[in-house]
Write a structure and sequence with these properties.
The protein has 355 residues and is mostly helical. 87% of the residues lie in helices and 0% in strands. It is built from 16 helices and no strands. Helix 14 packs parallel to helix 16. It is globular. The chain starts with a helix and ends with a helix.
């Protein structure tokens, strides 16, 4: 399997140019600077364009020296799904992720010890992109392979690879929650939390954010099996950690906190949590709509549900209508992210109008 044949499946619009290896490497250095600057400035379309050319140029070099340049092709390809997703191109993100997997499988066949780790990470990413377009069963198969590979790596070198195992376990738990297999999701999430708790004790700055994310996922699975008090405890710990680390994660975790508070009958606190979530998500959406607007739609749906339960129909209707308007835009782009919340918002609004 040649690098160029793999690249052609990703984007056939980029044409090969006649340049010497020296010219190509010079151009690559300039493109890497452009990519880094665009990424840091969150100019994802510019970063995508630069990375597409990087893939094409490394592919040309790999035709002549595959041993040296195939890994660089793989690494560059692995960035493509991220940039496609950031620019709202979720189907292209999925296609690009599949192509990156092909390259890593090829590399793993020749050098398994060197590239199994990268394959596991790439599989975890593919599972996420599959979930975004509602291909849940395949997402679970893919993430289970990532977990299996990660366990094999941990057996040989636990300190080096247990983070990758935790990442894949979190992905498995999230995928299982999507199809309401909450008991299995909880088991995977508990193991991830255990790993990140140990790591965060040793290096808080490096791992507290991932611990918070794992606790969030654990809370979802616990809620799914009716263990609401434990779910609330997990999500409260997650929020506490995120207030010190990440506003973007905090915004969605506050939404999950409001659901847990509702399940535990703590109505006064839940209104404050969901309103803070909406406020943060509005700010984040202004900066990066493709990433945060679907989450804003979900949070507005939750806000509408809460006001409906409190008997404030006018406010509930306002939030639900805004939620529907936002989520409708993403139904054909990333149905796995929004379709459930869109249906729930529609049902809640129809219930209001029927009263």
């Amino acid at each position: 399997m040649s690098s160029m044949s793999l690249h052609s499946t990703l984007d056939g619009s980029i044409q090969e140019t006649e340049q010497t290896p020296k010219e190509i490497n010079c151009r690559l250095e300039n493109l890497k600077i452009k990519l880094s600057d665009a990424w840091e400035a969150e100019k994802y379309q510019e970063a995508l364009t630069a990375n597409q050319e990087i893939v094409q140029l490394y592919s040309q070099l790999a035709e002549q020296n595959p041993k040296k340049y195939d890994p660089k092709v793989a690494l560059s390809l692995d960035l493509m799904p991220f940039f496609f997703a950031k620019t709202g191109q979720y189907q292209k993100a999925l296609s690009a992720s599949r192509t990156a997997i092909k390259v890593y499988r090829h590399l793993t066949e020749t050098s398994p010890e060197q590239y199994k780790s990268e394959l596991a990470i790439s599989l975890s990413n593919l599972s996420l992109y599959l979930s975004n377009v509602q291909q849940y069963q395949e997402a679970i198969i893919v993430i289970q392979e990532a977990v299996k590979i990660s366990r094999q790596l941990v057996e040989k070198s636990p300190e080096q690879h247990k983070v990758k195992l935790a990442i894949s376990l979190n992905g498995l738990s999230a995928s299982l929650c999507k199809i309401e297999q909450y008991q299995e999701a909880m088991i995977a999430s508990q193991e991830a939390v255990h790993i990140y708790t140990q790591l965060a004790q040793e290096s808080p700055e490096d791992y507290e954010l991932e611990l918070a994310r794992s606790l969030d996922t654990l809370s979802l699975s616990l809620s799914g099996i009716g263990r609401h008090h434990e779910a609330l405890s997990a999500i409260q710990e997650s929020v506490k950690l995120l207030r010190q680390t990440s506003d973007s994660d905090l915004a969605m975790t506050l939404n999950n906190l409001s659901n847990c508070l509702s399940n535990n009958g703590q109505n006064l606190e839940l209104l404050s949590a969901i309103q803070e979530s909406v406020q943060l998500l509005r700010q984040l959406t202004m900066q990066d709509p493709n990433t945060y607007e679907p989450g804003l739609g979900e949070a507005l749906k939750t806000n509408g549900r809460i006001f409906k339960e409190l008997g404030q129909g006018k406010e509930a209707g306002m939030y639900l209508q805004e939620s529907i308007t936002i989520l409708e835009k993403y139904l054909s782009i990333c149905p796995g992210l929004v379709s459930r919340y869109y249906k729930e918002a529609k049902a809640l609004l129809e219930g209001l109008e029927g009263n």
